[in-house]
Amino acid sequence: MANSTKQNPLVRWIDYRLPIFSFMAHELNEYPTPRNLSYWWNFGSLAGIMLVIMITTGIFLAMQYTPHVSMAFDSVERIMRDVNYGWLVRYIHMNGASFFFIVTYIHIFRGIYYGSYKSPRELLWMLGVVILLLMMATAFMGYVLPWGQMSYWGATVITNLFSAIPIVGNDIVTWLWGGFAVGNPTLNRFYSLHYLLPFLIVGVVMLHLIALHQHGSNNPLGIDRKGPQDSIPFHPYYTIKDMFGLAVFLIFYAAMVFFWPNALGDSQNYIEANPLQTPPEIVPEWYFLPFYAILRSVPDILFIPAKLAGVLAMFGSIGLLFILPWLDTSRVRSARFRPIYKWFFWVLVLDALALGVVGAHRPEGWWIVIGRAATLYYYFHFVILLPLLGKFERPLPLPVSISAAVLASHRRPGTVASEKA
Amino acid sequence: MMRRTLIAGGLIAALVVAAAMPSRAQEEETPTPPKQYWSFDGPFGTFDRASAQRGFQIFAEVCSQCHSMNLVHYGDLERLGFSPEQVKAIAAKPFVNGKKVADIDDEGNPIERDARPSDAFVAPFANPKQALATLHAIPPDLSVIVKARAGGLNPLFGVSGPDYVYALLIEGYANPPADFKPASPTSNYDKYFPGHQISMPPPLSEDRVTYADGTKATEEQEGRDIVTFLAWAAEPTLEERHRTGIAAMLFLVSLTGVLYAGKRRIWSDVHRDEHDKED
Prior knowledge:
The complex is a heterodimer. By secondary structure, chain A is mainly alpha-helical. In chain A, about 65% of the residues lie in helices and about 0% in strands. In chain B, α2 packs across α6. The two termini of chain B are about 25 Å apart. Chain B is about 40% helix and about 5% strand. Chains A and B meet through α5, α6, α11, α15 and α17 of A and α1 and α7 of B.
């Protein structure tokens, strides 16, 4: 592509002054990529595409939505009933939030498994955690906009978390609400921010990509590329692989949108918000359940009340991801060569799933015990296990190079050419 | 690799299942409503027009005496198979005697006029307080009721909204247990209602309505018809969604096939490269 477009005189004229074509050729076309990326590496581009889908559908929804406490619910139903293909745009957006989180969580766990956060990709990883935080804020505020029962009571519960801050907590909550309860000013500012934050996410995604392209993708072996034989150009190899992955992903996404559009949501949100009637259960969307479980699991700790401790533990669980590059002391990136870490990775996955299930249940009986154990284990994994494991684990010998490993695995299936330790 | 992919896939599936599970602990022993067959179930589901029209008759003659349905307009009934003339006639005849549309005439005076197809269904009460004063309860609006109860319309797991509403209306009003004490004079026992105290008296019974199409109005028939109508009211675009969905799936599956072939072809030289060096 680079050569053919450069032959066009207009393209050459522009490129001499604004090197946009060179930039695209360099970053999207020639961009050298490890030859051994597995399908787990599809989820980053899927997340990027989800962001674009969410922004596009969101802009169209905003053209029909009315952010007022007495009109918001009906305006969403109007989109569903009277706007041409409004039901389609809304269901794509609504289920899009779930699928955005699904691909992002897989993307994050892929990074954890293959040590993608290790030097020199620490900032790349931290920018990713910032994107996750922004996504969570955006999703939370978006869920408030239809002004159903769960919108209203979810907003009430989550904004009330800030009242846990000593001394100024209650004043902060009043300030956030713009009144003495969740009301019209709250809905208006959430709408404003829900429109703003995705564009901040776009900005951080740009930084995420700049950081990625500085050293290129990590790969399933977790070793650096040693020369051109280890790389292939991004286009056409990974463009076609990403497109194929996208098509498979869209089958699942479309199935939910067209056949089970409300299955991932709460039926309570089809009841208009009623400040005088608390729903029987206040449950967040599924993608927040693990964090919700941590929030509710923490008891009073010494002089810290349970509410504050829970809020700290919940935000701390993401804070740990932020400093993960320094918590993991092993110099080997990929879990493929870390025989003990590999198992603890899957225990962490199970732990996160367990927290999700706990978050969906009332904190009663055994659920409290399981929730506390799973929360403790989450912290144990990051704060104690990872630093120690790097010191005591004996990693397997690493392959000499990516191409050597790939060729060896083709010669004798199941074996990997290895460097003499 | 394959095994690990399977494990990971299983775990992701487990996460989705776990999150979607009917997980709210049920306080009282509320029985699980039995699974019913509905014409609008599944990817190919459509609304049984005749049943939905009969359901509308039940709504107009029974439900609408207490319940509003603010999101549905008379004109929407054309989508249900009523002719424009029928819709005009339906709009002109109030559900509740004397309940008309509040409007302002050309001189600026408040008037009450007959409803037109462009009007929303006229509500039985002006506001919730009026309903409460008259009925000692506030009947919920029925526009999206089957989406707002149990697992809603088309859940992946658990009890669907239509199954719940049918069970509550038809099977729920059983003989109360010996220890049942009405919480208020208007309380009725319902097996499927959370807490079992429901203000609505049993709304349906044999021959509660005389169907315009001559169908025998058994209690079960009435239940099936009203739920079909309520499902249509909750999501009138369901049929369009299903049709579009089938086309989208066919397109996406073909696209996936084409892209997979393209991927194989483009990557063949990378793999050939590997096999060449092998020799």
